[in-house]
């Protein structure tokens, strides 16, 4: 076996609406109370926000920054960490569940069967990713995954350096890694790092993928993924 597959979540294996209409509102309602009540894990989030705003930022400024970043869909790590902590409570309470397109479970199973490790790289925190794949509308898919990268252990998704770091971490040359995403900027960054990059255009989306090959679902990749 050689090669690996790396998958984006939102807009690629999961509908945008599952994140934007369900997960994000669930988190937004709770951001302020979690920070003010110093819930487990939030001191590190507050410290991370202060690291970005300045160490003297008061709690009101920290809360305002998190809410602004949330509303802008900024991918700053302290916000994404807080999202994961809040969502964990929702998943454990049965109020949230993962959602993937129907072509995703068979594709993951196929890569696993062929001995091709499949990794996730999302701006959502590793905690959020694990919860998402462990409780999907198609069951627990975590057994198909080799591991997870986010903006903390991988880096920003639009920077080639992040893709070089991940390739080194998983011990696979970039030329043998297939990256699938709905974002042209992410595909550009992966390609600049020497990865193979393929756009995924889901129903209702009109992204311009520029020079990158595009598929409508993971089944359309066929055996071409035998980078893989
Ligand atoms: C289920 S993980 C939450 C998704 C998320 O928070 C996010 O920002 C999605 O970004 P992606 O990199 O997967 O497009
Ligand atoms: Mg995406």
Automatic annotation (TrEMBL):
Q: Does the keyword Hydrolase apply?
A: yes
Q: In which pathway does it act?
A: Amino-acid biosynthesis; L-methionine biosynthesis via salvage pathway; L-methionine from S-methyl-5-thio-alpha-D-ribose 1-phosphate: step 3/6; Amino-acid biosynthesis; L-methionine biosynthesis via salvage pathway; L-methionine from S-methyl-5-thio-alpha-D-ribose 1-phosphate: step 4/6
Gene Ontology MF term list? 2,3-diketo-5-methylthiopentyl-1-phosphate enolase activity; 2-hydroxy-3-keto-5-methylthiopentenyl-1-phosphate phosphatase activity; acireductone synthase activity; magnesium ion binding
The record ties this protein, via Gene3D superfamilies, to: 1.10.720.60, HAD superfamily/HAD-like
Per its UniProt entry, which superkingdom is the organism in?
Answer: Bacteria
What is the reaction catalyzed?
5-methylsulfanyl-2,3-dioxopentyl phosphate + H2O = 1,2-dihydroxy-5-(methylsulfanyl)pent-1-en-3-one + phosphate
Cross-referenced PANTHER family, in alphabetical order? Answer: ENOLASE-PHOSPHATASE E1
Q: How does it assemble?
A: Monomer.
Q: What is this protein called?
A: Enolase-phosphatase E1
> Which organism does this sequence originate in?
Actinophytocola algeriensis
Instruction: Provide the gene name from the record.
Output: mtnC
């Amino acid at each position: 076996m050689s090669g690996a597959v790396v998958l984006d979540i939102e807009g690629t294996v999961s509908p945008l609406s599952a994140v934007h209409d369900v997960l994000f509102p669930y988190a937004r309602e709770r951001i302020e109370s979690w920070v003010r009540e110093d819930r487990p894990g939030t001191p590190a989030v507050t410290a991370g926000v202060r690291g970005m705003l300045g160490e003297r930022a008061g709690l009101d400024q920290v809360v305002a920054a998190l809410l602004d970043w949330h509303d802008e869909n900024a991918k700053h790590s302290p916000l994404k960490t807080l999202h994961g902590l809040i969502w964990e409570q929702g998943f454990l309470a049965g109020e949230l569940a993962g959602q993937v397109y129907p072509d995703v479970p068979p594709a993951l199973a196929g890569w696993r069967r062929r001995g091709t490790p499949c990794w996730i790289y999302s701006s959502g925190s590793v905690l959020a990713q694990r919860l998402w794949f462990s409780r999907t509308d198609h069951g627990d898919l975590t057994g198909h995954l080799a591991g997870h990268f986010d903006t903390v252990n991988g880096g920003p998704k639009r920077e080639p350096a992040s893709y070089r770091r991940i390739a080194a971490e998983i011990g696979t040359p970039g030329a043998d890694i297939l990256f699938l995403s709905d974002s042209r900027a992410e595909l550009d960054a992966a390609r600049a790092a020497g990865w193979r990059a393929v756009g995924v255009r889901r129903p209702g989306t009109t992204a311009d993928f520029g020079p990158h090959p595009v598929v409508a679902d993971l089944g359309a990749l066929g055996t071409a993924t035998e980078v893989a």
